TrEMBL record:
Keyword Nuclease among UniProt keywords: no
Keywords: FAD, Flavoprotein, Oxidoreductase
Organism: Streptomyces carminius
Ranges where the FAD/NAD(P)-binding domain occurs: 4-285
A UniProt-annotated Pfam family: Pyr_redox_2
Key word Signal present: no
Official protein name in the record: Oxidoreductase
Any one GO BP annotation for this protein: aerobic electron transport chain
Length: 400
């Protein structure tokens, strides 16, 4: 019987991983299935642009994986039973179950409301395509002078506020920040950010934690009322709840706990990558949820799966975080590099050059994921021997 590899989630981590596995393992003895809830590869890094009205077309997964040997299942994963090694799904064909020998969990993340009253009911977000489209529709109906409040001083909050302000100068766009927006950036980059907010007319409410959201306003911790016909919640990501509910060992936030090779510490035939993995970087700190981390972790996970199945030593992929690249509308951006401890270096790149660089990064990440087998050498390896229950071929060595 063929070794069944099931990849859950076709985002930046999962889509790339599925293609990479198909390219490097022989179809004679492996079967790769990719399960995703929606039929397109959604470029999440562009969703604030989609919400702001840009016309973006996302490539269909069926097209992406045509001819690669990857079997595509369009269904929502509702659970994993790691003891029986099955995945429960619900899709157009009803409920179903999929058996696996090796599982790669890359279900990503969505919005985290942190239990703030009214946020789930009244706030919009840009963490998924359907929610971004809902926001786009609401903004289109908002007349000149309409008030929009973006909650969150992180990367997504800054990118969303600046993109909305640039594309809809007729609206009154504000950002609520618990501390100072971009406080982790170097002093020069922080000044650059403030100039961008001023130029685009984004009003910044500093030291303003939002504690409730109502249909036409948000309430700050000190009781102040901030007018907001539209509140956009950008105050954090919550990882997919599937892993935690499945009995895999997870962190308090639901990320899968793995070893250096992205293999679950509780269930060795399960691997994880992307936003839903708790991966420790070279500096001893958890990698942030980001596209770059999704890249490094999926490359490490696929390398480990292939090595273990084909009886080779598991190579170590470098797990580093190089910095933040924040777009400030279409014509401005900040590229801030960080040191080994994740602290901002004094050097940063800002302005049009950084914006062009960021546009290239977005294009490259989208294109690379949507062409997962392009340019890689096809070296379809046969399995070394029948893998054991832990997905390791007899005699295979491990790096970590
Ligand atoms: C607006 C925005 C801007 C961003 N900008 C940047 C940036 O500039 N730089 C950066 O590094 N990062 C950025 N990020 C973060 C980055 O997008 C994520 O870190 C990255 O998408 C993580 O990749 P992933 O593959 O783990 O998850 P995802 O890309 O979220 O993919 C998960 C996949 O799983 C599918 N899925 C989820 N649940 C289920 C289920 N139950 N059943 C079936 N399928 C399911 C989803 O449909 C999706 O296809 C941004 C995020 C947002 C929202």
């Amino acid at each position: 019987m063929k070794h069944r590899i099931v990849v859950l989630g076709a985002g930046y981590a999962g889509a790339f991983a599925a293609g990479s596995l198909a390219r490097r393992l022989s179809p004679a003895d492996t079967e790769i299935t990719l399960v995703n809830a929606v039929p397109e590869f959604v470029e999440r890094m562009r969703l604030h642009q989609l919400a702001a009205g840009r016309d973006l077309a996302f490539r269909g997964l069926a097209d992406i994986f045509a001819g690669t040997g990857v079997r595509l299942r369009l269904a929502r994963v509702t659970g994993v039973d790691p003891e029986r090694r099955t995945v429960a799904m619900t899709g157009e064909d009803g409920d179903g179950e999929l058996a696996y020998d090796t599982l790669l969990h890359t279900l990503g993340s969505s919005v985290a409301h942190h239990g703030v009253p009214g946020a789930a009911e009244h706030a919009f977000d840009v963490t998924g395509r359907s929610s971004a489209l809902r926001l786009r529709e609401r903004l289109a109906a908002l007349g000149a002078g309409g008030t929009v409040l973006v909650v969150g001083e992180g990367l997504t909050g800054i990118e969303t506020a600046t993109e909305l302000a640039e594309s809809r100068p007729d609206l009154s766009v504000a950002l609520a920040a618990r501390g100072g927006p971009g406080a982790w950036l170097s002093p020069g980059a922080q000044r650059h950010l403030r100039r961008a907010f001023d130029r685009l007319g984004v009003a910044v409410h500093e030291h303003t934690g939002i504690e409730a959201v109502e249909p036409d306003r948000a309430i700050a911790a000190d009781g102040r009322s901030v007018p907001a016909e539209v509140t956009v919640w950008a105050a954090g990501f919550a990882v997919s709840p599937v892993a935690a509910a499945s009995g895999l060992e997870v962190t308090g936030t639901g990320q899968v706990v793995v070893d250096r090779t992205m293999r679950s510490v509780s269930h060795p035939d399960v691997y994880a990558a992307g936003d839903c993995v708790h991966a420790i970087g070279e500096n001893g700190r958890p990698l942030p949820m980001s596209c770059a981390s999704a890249g490094f972790t999926n490359m490490q996970a696929t390398a480990a799966i292939i090595a273990r199945l084909t009886g080779r030593e598991v190579p170590a992929t470098e797990l580093k975080y190089y910095g933040n690249h924040i777009s400030l509308g279409r014509r401005d951006a900040i590229f801030q590099t960080v040191d080994g401890d994740g602290r901002a270096r004094s050097w940063y790149l800002g302005g049009r050059t950084a914006a062009r660089f960021k546009a290239g990064v977005l294009k490259g990440a989208g294109w690379g994921t949507a062409h997962p087998t392009f340019g890689m050498p096809t070296r379809r390896r046969r399995l070394a021997a029948a893998p054991d229950r832990a997905g390791t071929a007899a005699g295979a060595r491990t790096a970590a």
